[in-house]
């Protein structure tokens, strides 16, 4: 006969305090000194432990072989658990999984098991292994229904078990003055995701809120925020720019983009990055690698565009001229003097703008390829002005973004479109169908709290909604 003995929800390093000792009949504890009381209490505790241990040993002797595990091996198990937690917090998920699996295999019936299985489920989730995370969470809730982690485990399982659920997100800023948990609880009935800007571009205080090697760290708070959001049942999407990083342009002026002023007919640097510079591209890749070490659910890029008068850096010009074997001059292109067409733009202008659109699409593709080596499940979103969809030629000229190039590069990216007035959602959906853009690939972002607009957006078939800030 094999008996299964399960210990429920015993957290590490927190044994339950002993129950108060009852006085014997006819005996009053007040006649003893404090020292005598303590001695009698300890003796009583040891006696109870001895008796309980005797009957426990007698019970299990008929179920399984006597345990051979020593106190030393239990200590080794706790040490293994601590090392696993350290690996998890350092985002070394493969190492953490091996440690937690080793504990589960080596210490049957130990209080270690509940913590190890809970942490294993969290590790699978952070590593993007959704089926494994769901499996472990179900096992955990079945094995330890009274665990201290029960509520959080049920929230996590609910989130993972509904992949097709519409995402309704709110934006919370670390600079808002709101406590994050209070803010999210106010939206708990209406939203299931939170978008967090993990950077600050304010003059004199620019930097990021996560550990990064290539940027000033204002505070390493992202892991704490992620855990808070998960505790109340929210997914976490981090906002991080790719061009507007004041800390980088201030520290490395040579990385700045250059804008052409058609009125003054001159060039001047601006507070945006030159993505055509290979050093800048590597810096951005490193920054996103650092971000991907945190157990977030997705990334939202807010500045994936180039204005028509931006991007006139030596790096961009050299790359263009080497590919097309033709020289290019910002004044001539802006004036439309080279091969003017009926729309007032020169043919070289469209060569230049179209090439930049393809460059941006490939830049995002490279970024995704690199990050998905570590986080294959990461959601990606980028915000685009509605004009690139409703007036694609004008949108391409103003932003260097062509949705056909985004699709050509097979970027697995959610397209985020702001919505400013009711009545436009149906037209937007019809236009998207012409590009073969699926509703599940689109998020809408209402720009006001207009009741009619919000109602229309919520009824739409699109996968995600980003609610306006109150």
UniProtKB/TrEMBL annotation:
Keywords: Membrane, Signal, Transmembrane, Transmembrane helix. Residues 83-157 form the Outer membrane lipoprotein BamD-like domain. It holds the Pfam family YfiO. InterPro entries: BamD-like, TPR-like_helical_dom_sf. The chain crosses the membrane at residues 42-62. The keyword Signal applies. This is Tetratricopeptide repeat protein.
